[in-house]
Amino acid sequence: MMPILFLLFLSVCAMIYVYRFRGCARFATVHEYLRKGWPIFAPLNVFLYMTSHRRARAPFTSVDDYPELKLLQDNWQVIAAEASQLMASGQFIQTTAQENASYYDVGFRTFYKYGWSKFYCTWYGETLHSAKALCPNTVALLKSIPSVNGAMFTLLPPNAQLTRHLDPVACSLRYHLGLDTPNDPNCFISVDGKRTFWRNGHAFMFDETYLHYVKNDTRQYRLILMCDIDRPVNILGRPVNWLYKKFVRLLLVPNLPGDQSGPFNRLFARLMPTLNRAKKLKKTNPRLYYPLKWLVNFSLLGILLLVLALIFRLIIAVVN
Questions:
Q1: Of 94, 113, 221, 233, which shows the fewest CB atoms inside 10 Å?
Q2: Does domain 60-249 match CATH 2.102.10.10?
């Protein structure tokens, strides 16, 4: 019982740290943090922040610290040619069609309403069949770099934005390589209050668990390669990072019929009618909706605490 109570205390401390003290950008209210900040993942994330190497502790990190990624930048035109062909053949549009399994993307579906779209290449140990067929050169380059956990092409239309958000899990750092971009400061990303913009053939890296947002105030599409790069951590952080990567692998989403899919993709598709009813309940009977919502959230927190207890025991065993 005491380990659970101790972990509960540490979990609350981690949530407070992320909400009040991490970085320069802040959530406006506690409600916004609870709604957008994924507080359920804060305990494990904070542990990974503590065990990260120095080069991975800032909102932006230097690509030069990851020399293996130079291969992607050296071959950016090869990658760009395949991505442009995907765009021209309408593959990006297909992935956002509700009748396709690709629509049910737990991690990125909320971006569809802004016109954003994607095409997965690899995902935490899986290489999608459609990617092998349609962008084989890109896939070969990605598979030759062990630190690339996952990769996709992403497309943002003109005069579009992604409102500020953060990604839930801290097992990776985010790598962006410009392929066909406006090359304009008016098409930019802001990470923890610091801006940069995309240029063709140029790359940058950042920690996606900091608050960030994107704006494309130009008349041109922004096409990039987006990769998850393994977060460098010390020996204490490796069990947590390994666990996180196994979890994220379950989020695998297909591009086209015949592609592999993860259990969360299939579950999300089955739950969509229920989620739509929940949205209606929120409007028609908020007094019932919010207690049910918090019941689900606290149940998930309880599951997380059990996982944390197991990890805690594993770390103690490794240290001893």
A1: 113
A2: no
